[in-house]
Inverse folding.
């Protein structure tokens, strides 16, 4: 009788352990892979964002031939109507598209005249080393509130800047001959209206020679 | 006889007044609701300003406010949360000690129905705190990195003093700075050590870095306390003219040092703005508002010898 009791107790314990195991044995390779999967991969995220979300959002960009006259007429109203800002920042962003004629080329920028027949630089496409959050924050597609760790959110900025430098800029530099007509979609960050609005400094996301 | 009557009348008057003042009056205003201000450390003037401003704004808004000093110790912080939950506080204005380690404390408060508003430092969760008012350290250090390259040059050796390694701000600042400086391959970082956001530790670490690397041209410090400590070490070593020091915070002593041409630049974080706004968020919550953005980035401005006149008293003049 006593043996039967012990047998039942061991059986119950075995069933409980089977259903609710006290530990799992995992190979080192699997554990490393699981840890990597749980870690946010900014490069991978930026690639997906670049391929899927960004191109689909370009119709939300304000047209340069609408924005620039609005800024010229009243920068505060243009800001209110077309810009977006983040948190308590006084600085703001424009997500802008348009086309213009190349009027000057240097290592760090390509100057475009937007107005037909003009030779003035209305827009400056930035082609040097890219820093900061204009691409991440300028479109309004991404929000800091969605990322528990702001380091991940900041890594997206660096990854997006890298994509522009490696994918958009080499092609743009080839296209940007004096007098060539270029269409573009990009983001501009305005920290200081005295220097950042005229010309509007845009980090290009997509460009095309017309 | 007349004197006796006067004495009796005075005694009756005193007795009546004593009875009136000793009894609780039904017309007395109810006790004020309480807001807790939990600060990572009061051993750094910047956090003292943050905590005192949050407390002062809460009092202005009609609350009783108390500051709790966690002394950079998550165990002390946990104990403060236990006490404030038991003490009937209506909201917590919280400057966490550790992005991961502080999450559990916020969750406890949330479970007890107490909203927590993080200030300056974040916790690694988007569903524990009611809102998080955070300095945009990364963007601020991108600007500092660009200014570093402009003033130190595109080549040479430099060092970095990191903050507390468990704090996200440490890495956001470091990553923002390196997102710029690392693009210049002839600028070589020869030392990167933690000064734990502390002035004395910053001095000590800088001394040892200078012994191993006497030719550095610049040092980027993750906060102003370490920048002051580092600068002190440079003065002692007679290298304060050779090595350019960059801080981050916008502490008053560093802003004054920039004006005196000692420290090159810092990032102004606006602790008073963050503290005041967080207290206002808590007030809105207590009055019924529930829709708050989870993260509110607060911009950081570059303070240099060219524009230092615009800044002071932990903000813009």
């Amino acid at each position: 009788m006593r043996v039967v009791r012990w047998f039942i107790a061991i059986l119950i314990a075995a069933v409980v352990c089977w259903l609710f195991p006290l530990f799992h044995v995992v190979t080192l390779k699997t554990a490393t892979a699981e840890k990597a999967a749980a870690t946010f991969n900014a490069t991978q995220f930026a690639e997906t964002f670049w391929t899927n979300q960004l191109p689909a959002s370009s119709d939300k960009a304000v047209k340069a031939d609408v924005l620039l006259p609005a800024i010229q007429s009243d920068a505060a109203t243009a800001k209110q109507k077309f810009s977006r800002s983040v948190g308590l920042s006084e600085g703001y962003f424009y997500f802008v598209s348009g086309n213009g004629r190349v009027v000057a080329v240097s290592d760090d920028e390509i100057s475009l005249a937007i107005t037909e027949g003009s030779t003035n630089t209305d827009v400056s496409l930035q082609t040097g080393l890219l820093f900061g959050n204009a691409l991440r924050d300028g479109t309004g597609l991404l929000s800091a509130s969605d990322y528990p760790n702001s380091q991940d959110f900041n890594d997206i900025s660096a990854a997006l800047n890298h994509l522009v430098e490696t994918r958009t800029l080499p092609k743009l530099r080839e296209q940007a001959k004096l007098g060539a007509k270029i269409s573009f979609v990009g983001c501009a960050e305005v920290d200081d209206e005295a220097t950042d609005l005229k010309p509007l400094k845009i980090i290009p996301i997509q460009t095309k020679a017309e | 006889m007349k004197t006796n009557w006067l004495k009796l009348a005075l005694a009756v008057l005193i007795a009546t007044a004593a009875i009136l003042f000793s009894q609780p009056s039904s017309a007395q205003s109810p006790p004020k609701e309480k807001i807790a201000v939990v600060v990572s450390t009061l051993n750094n003037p910047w956090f003292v300003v943050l905590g005192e401003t949050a407390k002062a704004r809460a009092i202005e808004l009609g609350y009783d406010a108390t500051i709790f000093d966690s002394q950079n110790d998550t165990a002390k912080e946990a104990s403060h949360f236990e006490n404030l939950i038991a003490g009937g506080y209506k909201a917590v204005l919280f400057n966490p000690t550790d992005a991961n380690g502080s999450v559990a404390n916020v969750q406890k408060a949330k479970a007890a129905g107490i909203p927590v508003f993080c200030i300056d430092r974040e916790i690694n969760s988007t569903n524990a705190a009611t809102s998080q008012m955070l300095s945009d350290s990364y963007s601020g250090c991108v600007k500092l990195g660009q200014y570093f390259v402009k003033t130190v040059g595109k080549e040479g050796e430099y060092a970095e003093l990191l903050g507390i390694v468990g704090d996200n701000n440490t890495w956001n600042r470091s990553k923002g700075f390196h997102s710029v400086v690392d693009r210049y391959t002839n600028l070589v970082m020869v030392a990167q050590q933690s000064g734990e956001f502390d002035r004395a530790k910053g001095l000590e670490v800088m001394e040892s870095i200078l012994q191993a690397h006497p030719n550095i041209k610049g040092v980027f410090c993750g906060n102003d306390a370490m920048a002051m400590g580092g600068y002190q070490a440079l003065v002692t070593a007679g290298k304060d003219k050779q090595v350019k020091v960059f801080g981050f915070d916008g502490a008053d002593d560093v802003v004054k040092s920039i004006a005196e041409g000692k420290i090159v630049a810092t990032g102004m974080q606006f602790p008073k703005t963050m503290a005041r706004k967080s207290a206002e968020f808590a007030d809105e919550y207590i009055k019924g508002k529930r829709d708050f953005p989870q993260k509110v980035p607060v911009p950081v401005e570059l303070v240099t010898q060219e524009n230092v006149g615009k800044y002071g008293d932990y903000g813009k003049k």
